[in-house]
Amino acid sequence: MQVQNSRVTKLVYALPYYLWILLFVALPIALIVYYSFFDIHGNLTLHNYEKFFTPVYLKLTLSSFWYAFLITIVSLTIAYPVAYLLTKTRNSQIWLLLIIAPSWINLLLKAYAFIGIFSTYGMANSFLETIGIGTKQILFTDFSFIFVSVYIFIPFMILPIFNALNELNPTFLEAAQDMGASKWTAFWRVIFPLTIDGVKSGCQVVFIPALSLFMLTRLIAGNRVITLGTAIEEHFLVTQDWGMGSTIAVFLIIIMFLFMIVTGSRNRKRGA
User: Fold this and answer.
1) N- to C-terminal Cα distance for the chain?
2) Domain ranges of the chain
3) Exposed, middle or buried: residue 72 (CB in 10 Å: 0-12, 13-18, 19+)?
4) How far is residue 193's CA from residue 164's CA, in Å, rounded to a whole number?
5) Options 3.40.50.2300, 1.10.3720.10, 3.30.70.1150, 3.40.50.150; which CATH number does 54-271 get?
6) What is the pLDDT of residue 4?
7) For residue 225, how many C-alpha atoms fall within 13 Å in the half-sphere facing its CB?
């Protein structure tokens, strides 16, 4: 009787979670899949899926992967040393809060702030003129797009890596030093492998949203960078071809799930 009551209690507590997943995850995905089988005139068709595998959309997919990869790699390259230094710093929680605080600001406000910074008469060009380089075209370039994207996503990369480093057992490092390992060897053979789960989590929360960016491609890159997110926005809001936009969204969701499976495999094995 107690076991049965326990199961009922768990089901009651889990019900809001299941309703949330159904209404805000499963149902929207089902609607996207449904609309992907209709053309712009509302006719049932598979043409959208055939069209996705044409060179135009395949090139678009590769471009999205490339920019998401660059954003993730640059974020990881900066975030790991920063997270490592935070674990060695006094009042690390305060410093971590200062790093995370900009993520609370609206994305649109940050984008417009960088438009001012990177504009012809902005702070960046003023600095370049001061040091004698002169005015450069910074805004509406690949550099500005990647720079702003990294700035926006880097707190989400730092946090899981910091948590993984903070939970690292210091006796492992002491053992490596006792066995004569250099700091560089200890990092690659001990620290990095033991914190790989934090790296994977950080890559997930950066790569997946970076794959579908669309606002920054307009405001910062000036449509010089085209991603899957940009294509979805164009089809839904400009061409009104909801079917093709939904088809791209279906493949984007599949890619996201595959990436989560690949980067989360070790966690699942550990859980088992």
Assistant:
1) 29
2) 54-271
3) buried
4) 11
5) 1.10.3720.10
6) 67
7) 30
